[in-house]
Amino acid sequence: MPELPEVETVRQGLDKWIVGRTISTVEVNHPRSVRRHVAGAKDFAALLRGRTITATRRRGKYLWLPLDSGDAIVGHLGMSGQLLVQPTSAPREKHLHIRFDFTDKGPQLRFVDQRTFGGLAVSLGGAELPSEIAHIALDPLEESFVDKDFVTALRRKRTGVKRALLDQTLISGVGNIYADEALWRARLHGAVAADSLSARAGSRLLAEVKAVMTEAIKAGGTSFDALYVNVNGESGYFDRTLNAYGREGEPCPRCGAAIKRASFMNRSSFFCPRCQRPPA
Q1: The pTM is what?
Q2: CATH code for the domain of 263
Q3: Of residues 36, 157, 187, 267, which has the active-site annotation?
Q4: N or C: which end of the chain has fewer CB within 10 A?
Q5: Sheet holding 57-59, edge to edge
Q6: Annotated catalytic, 162?
Q7: Is 3 in the active site?
Q8: Is 73 within the bounds of a domain?
């Protein structure tokens, strides 16, 4: 699933290509892609016709596009959602579910989703912050994120530190890949109890979360297959510099021990058994 760096990469691309443009028509080809818009596909399209996209915003793994009406298009990419900017002459993608045309007759915005876990909706009055995502915690790269408050909240959690990092009500945007990478950098095993961390250790972990996210954004995110691409259809390349995630059996770049994989919440965790010793 795309995490914060991948969604931020998409947002930056959208910011370049669609801000200031006015929607002329919206074509919805698959009802699951607008299932979160409870009034249905026709209402979704009607609300957007003639509206101008004024900005692009992101919180964690969610995107929203404020409109001149005060509403917003809010979206989540799910497992395989793609927001592509395509010439009007480009062939239709196999899994094209929503298509936006603009009054300037320029490139279209297309929502493509092979697995249909993602989707778009119109958030009425949601230009500033859609109510649908107001419960999501601030992400670590937002200006209003307060490091000290997060560390205090983290150290109150009576759960493993990796599980805490994946809690989107505590901190948003961190998923399996970047949790493993940040924990490797901080030399912490994911099963270490969050409430056993010192303030210094919590601050160090947060610093590594921010660092790995920032580096991943510069690399265009992490692509393991063709399901995640930016708005131009290009893959990210941060996977080339991953230290732990997906590296089972490979030597740890820091100490040389073989990276191990363990089952975790129906996923996998990757860690160095020497640098990241599990709790007793």
Answers
A1: 0.93
A2: 1.10.8.50
A3: 267
A4: C
A5: 57-59, 62-66, 72-76, 119-123
A6: no
A7: yes
A8: yes
